[in-house]
Amino acid sequence: MIHFPSGAITLEIILRWLHLLAGITWFGVGYFLVLAGLPWQRELDPGTRSKAAPPLLRRALWWYRWASLVTVFVGLWLWMREVAADRRGAGAPASSAIWSFFLLWTLAYVVYMGVLMSPVEALRKGPVLAVITAALVVAAGYAFLRINSHGWETNRVLAIGIGGGIGWFMMFNLWGVIWRFQKRLVAWTAAGSMPPEAERMARLTVLAAQTNAWLSLPLLFFMATASHYPIFGSLT
Fold first, then answer.
1. What is the pTM of this model?
2. Structural domains in the chain (count)
């Protein structure tokens, strides 16, 4: 016999379903752009590219950016509810999880953005940027665990604090670099006229998109870890 619960548990499953649906859309479009969209554009002659690429990219980027917002903010809502429930259950007067989440992961992105926009070209070489980005993510994750080591934090709170933090980083990267530059590149491509700064913007867009694609791998690992692999403590 099927039983449909009511009340808070119904809201919980609706939010989780929305979070998963938006996340699949976000990552799916991102993988499409990196694995298929960008290589496809390089194979087109300029005339074909100016006609075929802009309509496709406008639609893809619309889904890409708005799905990221829904994924992150619905996920934060769910996570904050989890933090509050665990804190109350432990009788803790306050939690450092939320403020440390926003501080550490925003700071990590600010440093990354400074490196990406730096006048030092060597910092933007793929392997160098990858090492710097990995170091920032590891440092932010480690600091988050150290700050939130009171003993009452469950595996879900800590794992999502890291996985969700990577998502927070990726959302800023999408809106701050990929979308900001790509919308100009799409307009210039449609007009068939690329100004001198277009090459630099295209390079930065590719680097940011590749960064997001790679970061999605540890993000998904920590999201799965939250409820299925207790590396940071108890699942309950």
1. 0.92
2. 1
- 136: tokens are 């920032």
| Chain-centroid distance, C-alpha 70 | 11
Q: Show the tokens assigned to 135.
A: 């170091």
Burial 112-136 (b: 16+ CB within 10 A, else e): beebbeeeeeeebeeeebeebbeeb
Per-residue pLDDT of the chain (236 residues; tens, 9 = 90+): 666 666 667 788 899 999 999 999 999 999 999 998 888 888 878 778 888 888 888 999 999 999 999 999 999 999 999 899 888 877 777 789 999 999 999 999 999 999 999 999 999 898 999 999 999 999 999 999 999 988 888 899 999 999 999 999 999 999 999 999 999 999 998 887 888 888 899 999 999 999 999 999 999 999 999 888 888 876 66
Q: Judge whether 2 lies within some domain.
A: no
**Per-residue tokens: 3:** 């039983």
- The domain of 74 spans 8-228
Q: Is residue 47 part of a domain?
A: yes
At 202, which amino acid appears?
Answer: A
Distance CA 5, CA 119 (A): 57
